[in-house]
Amino acid sequence: LHRFRNQDAIWTNAPGSEDLEAFRTRVTDAIERIVEEAPPGNVLVVCHGAVINAYLSPLLGLPQAMFFLPENTSLNSIVVEGHVRAIRFLNDVRHLTDPDLFA
Predict the structure, then answer these.
(1) Does the N terminus or the C terminus of the chain have fewer Cβ atoms within 10 A?
(2) Are 55 and 68 in contact (CB under 8 A)?
(3) What pTM was estimated for this model as a whole?
């Protein structure tokens, strides 16, 4: 409970779990490969909160493994321009709270 409340990663309790930097590297490499191989346009990556945090924390310069707890089905948008990554929005749930916006 203490780790959860303080946004510490709990997966490190699992036997054989990888350390944070190895996890971030693996996640970042995978997402960047997806972006590189995708045709021009929007790219959708579906993943869990730990992966979201692992990719976004370094973009924001944050050391925490879990700097926020994403809502279920929330959307997080990153604008990709060459090698520059800019976070457009985090944890967006407007599709749940105001679905008429998307009708």
Answers:
(1) C
(2) no
(3) 0.84
